[in-house]
Design a protein that fits this description.
CATH topology: Non-ribosomal Peptide Synthetase Peptidyl Carrier Protein, Chain A
Number of domains: 1
Low-confidence stretches: none
Order of helices and strands: HHHH
Strand content: under 5%
Mean pLDDT: 88
Helix content: 40-55%
Shape: globular
CATH superfamily: ACP-like
Number of helices: 4
CATH architecture: Orthogonal Bundle
CATH class: Mainly Alpha
Radius of gyration: 13 Å
Oligomer: single chain
């Protein structure tokens, strides 16, 4: 499963946001997430992906930007022999 799908899974599974509402350009605010939900989302993403997302900008990040942020900070596994 790719990172974008895993980010969407967090929003659907943990925050009960219907998948039809999750667009790449939707911000967390667009998804009607209050400040507590944003903090919980950031903590969940940090835990699942091992990255740090600045909480002060999280509410205005789009789903696509969160995915890009994770992709840029997640090591790519070395190919096997």
């Amino acid at each position: 499963m790719d990172i974008a799908a895993r980010v969407c899974d967090v929003l659907v599974d943990k925050f009960k946001i219907h998948s039809d509402r999750i667009a790449p350009d939707a911000t967390l605010a667009d998804l009607q997430m209050d400040s507590l939900a944003v903090v919980e989302f950031v903590l969940e993403v940090e835990d699942r992906f091992g990255v740090q997302i600045p909480e002060d900008t999280a509410r205005t990040l789009t789903v696509s930007a969160v995915t890009h942020y994770i992709t840029q900070r997640t090591p790519v596994p070395e190919p096997g022999p």
